[in-house]
Amino acid sequence: xxxxxxxxxxxxxxxxxxxxxxxxxxxxxxxxxxxxxxxxxxxxxxxxxxxxxxxxxxxxxxxxxxxxxxxxxxxxxxxxxxxxxxxxxxxxxxxxxxxxxxxxxxxxxxxxxxxxxxxxxxxxxxxxxxxxxxxxxxxxxxxxxxx
Length: 147
Fold this sequence. Notes:
By secondary structure, the chain is mostly helical. The protein has one domain (3-145). Helices cover 67% and strands 0% of the residues. The protein contains eight helices and no strands. It has helices at 3-12, 17-25, 33-40, 55-68, 76-97, 102-106, 113-121, 124-145. Helix 2 runs parallel beside helix 8 (124-145) and helix 5 (76-97) crosses helix 8 (124-145). The chain is globular and about 45 Å long. The mean pLDDT is 96.
C-alpha cells in the first residue's frame, strides 16, 4: 500500500485531513509522529473548520517544509526551494481539484453546526475528503521524490 493510500485510510478512521497526511509522512522527514499529529489537529476543515486551505494541503506543506526548509533565517536558497515546492503543491492540487479551499471542495460551512452535521450525515469525511487526501499525498510524493 502506498503512503497516500495509508493517509486516505487514516482519514476514513477519523483523523482529520492534515493529521492523515502528517501521520503517513512524518517518519519520512524525521519528525515524531505523535507530536506531529497533535500539531496538525488544528488544521482540519480548512484550519479550525473555517473552510480555508484544505488540511490535506496544509499537512503536505508542513512535510515539504520539513524536507526542504531551514531553521536558518539567512538560508534564502532553502527558503526559496520550500516556497517553490509548496507553490507546486498548491498549483497541482488546484489543477486536479479546481480549488484549494475546503469550503469549495466539500460545499459545506463546517463552522455552522447544522452544516457540520449535514457533512457528517452525508459521509463527506469518509467518502469525499479521503479523495483530497489521496490527491495531496500523490502530489506530495512526486515532489519529495523529485528532490
